[in-house]
Each structure stands twice: as structure tokens, then as C-alpha cells.
Design a protein that fits this description.
By secondary structure, the chain is mainly alpha-helical. Helix content is 65%, strand content 0%. Helix 1 runs antiparallel to helix 2, helix 1 runs parallel beside helix 3 and helix 5 packs parallel to helix 8.
Length: 195
């Protein structure tokens, strides 16, 4: 509260050259807030803010020629953020993969997992998936090979890809369709007795 008769000082526009320390004190919080929002990281925001103020400080003797020093500062900071992001993406593309030791049991585990997943499908679903995904046939050709309609091939493949479609094989006729496919594709003989 002001008492009656107190002199109130109103802010006066500064006519002389702007002081860098004053400019920094006025603008650093807003710039830091913006950069925290853009980068999502306080350390990166602080680093980018320092770089932006350093670039402005290097040009401070020519600040009168800059129409809006605040806009220039923010533009420099945001350009620095984009430059860092692009540099990180370029570095990630050039990354050399870390050499890992070869473990033959990993392949066995992977094959076993795939086998279990495939055995959880019906033989018709396995055949549809193999024809479409493994051998690259379209649904028309796969339907001709399996002796069913193309829409059925697509439906079987969709069901086979669904995570909830992991049920064991159901019927003898479905198994014969699968073996017809295997015999036709690879020249294997169907098993004579079921295990």
C-alpha cells in the first residue's frame, strides 16, 4: 500500500543502449521455460539457453540493428535445438552395431518359440500364413493352392496373426490341407502315422 503523498515511479522506456546484464535478467527465465518445454530436459535447456545468450552477447555491439533482440534470442535458441536434434539423428544413423557374441542356442530358442506359436494355429491357418507371408503368394493364388475362396484365405491369415488365435489343430481334414500344401511346396511326404 502506498501512503497518500508517496511518489510512484513509473517504468520509463530506456532511450540509451540496452545493457546485456539487464536484458539477460529480463529474458532468461522465459527462454529457459520455453526450452524446457521444447527439449523436455532441463540440462539441455540450460545449455541451449547459454549458447543463445552467448551468440547474442557476441553481437551485442550491433544490437541496435536487430529489430527485436528478444525474438532474435528465441530464434537462435530454437534453431540450436533443431540443430542438436538433427545431429543426434545423424549420429544414430551412423552408429555401428555393437558386436554381440553368437549363441547358437538363441536360434534354437527362437525356432522352438515359432514352432509353438505355429502349432497353436489350425493347420489351415498355418497354410494360409505360409502361403501369404512366407512364400509371398497373393490371396488368389493361395486360394487356388488350398482349394478355397480368396476371402477365406485372408480370413484364415488374419485369424492366425491375431494373438487370441492360438488354439491347437482341430480336425483331420484341416491337417490334410496343410500337408497338401507342404507336399506341393517342398516335395515332402505326409506322415503315415500320427504321433
Amino acid at each position: 500500500m502506498q501512503a497518500e503523498g508517496d511518489v510512484v515511479r513509473l517504468p520509463v522506456a530506456q532511450e540509451g543502449p540496452l545493457d546485456f546484464a539487464t536484458f539477460f535478467a529480463d529474458e532468461h527465465r522465459e527462454l529457459y521455460r520455453l526450452l524446457c518445454f521444447v527439449t523436455g530436459n532441463r540440462a539441455d535447456a540450460a545449455d541451449l539457453m547459454q549458447d543463445a545468450f552467448l551468440k547474442l552477447w557476441e553481437r551485442w555491439d550491433r544490437v541496435e540493428r536487430i529489430a527485436d533482440p528478444r525474438a532474435y534470442l528465441f530464434r537462435v535458441a530454437l534453431n540450436g535445438s533443431r540443430r542438436r536434434t538433427r545431429a543426434a539423428l545423424r549420429a544414430a544413423r551412423r552408429l555401428v552395431p555393437i558386436a554381440s557374441s553368437y549363441d547358437p542356442f538363441d536360434e534354437v530358442d527362437l525356432r522352438q518359440d515359432i514352432r509353438q506359436i505355429l502349432l497353436g494355429l489350425s493347420p489351415r491357418q498355418r497354410a494360409a500364413l505360409a502361403l501369404l507371408d512366407l512364400y509371398g503368394y497373393d490371396s488368389q493364388e493361395a486360394a487356388r493352392i488350398m482349394g478355397i475362396r480368396p476371402s477365406t484365405v485372408r480370413a484364415l491369415a488374419t485369424q492366425g496373426r491375431a494373438p487370441s488365435a492360438r488354439s491347437p489343430a482341430s480336425s483331420e481334414s484341416e491337417e490334410s490341407v496343410t500337408w497338401a500344401f507342404v507336399v506341393g511346396a517342398g516335395g515332402l511326404e505326409p506322415p503315415t502315422a500320427r504321433l
